[in-house]
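Following up on my earlier thread - several people asked me to post the actual chain instead of describing it. Fair enough. Here it is, all 215 residues.
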Amino acid sequence: MTKLLCPSMMCANYGCLGEEVRLLEDAGADILHIDVMDGHFVPNFGMGLQDIEFITDHARIPVDVHLMIDQPGHYIEKFALMGISIMYVHLEADQHITRTLQSIKDHGMKAGIAINPGTSIEAVKPILSLVDYMLVMSVNPGFAGQKYLPFVDEKIDGLHTLKDKYHFSLMLDGSCSPERIKILRDRGVDGFILGTSALFGKDRPYKELIRELRY
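Reply from S.P.:
Thanks for posting it. Predicted structure:
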């Protein structure tokens, strides 16, 4: 059974965002996932602070943010005050990553680290003791609808062997199709960010889709 299913709110219908939040929660989503991009660390923009405030005000389940921005440590207090439960920051975007991770925890949030497809396990291993969630990108960050990069499987296998030692949850973001979710949960992935490959833009209710992804 898949432990954590996390809809990516970047893919939601913004014409009825409050209803989307309610439907996803009623469908059994575990965490609402918000992507924040600055147009510099990644070549795209999204999501706005007003969007985040709206979602956290309406959500009854945890909300996380994935900061695809330079110098994420400058914004920790802002997101903590919004009610964010988990903050993911990129190893590649912060020269003082240990200080940032500790500050996230000091502000009452769970600390998550995200790594791009080309970043090695060895690069992140020294800080795993500070991490609650380890987010592996299986596509280059910044855009929805990209193809899965199969060489990431080896990284997933390597991180799986470190979970018991460092006590983190292993998460996957990027092209999480139903078929891939079933395969990778058996290889140690605890949770998946759900976008257009598995959840959004389908002609079926969220509740049906999430139930099938769960089992």
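The chain has a mean pLDDT of 95. That should answer part of your original question.
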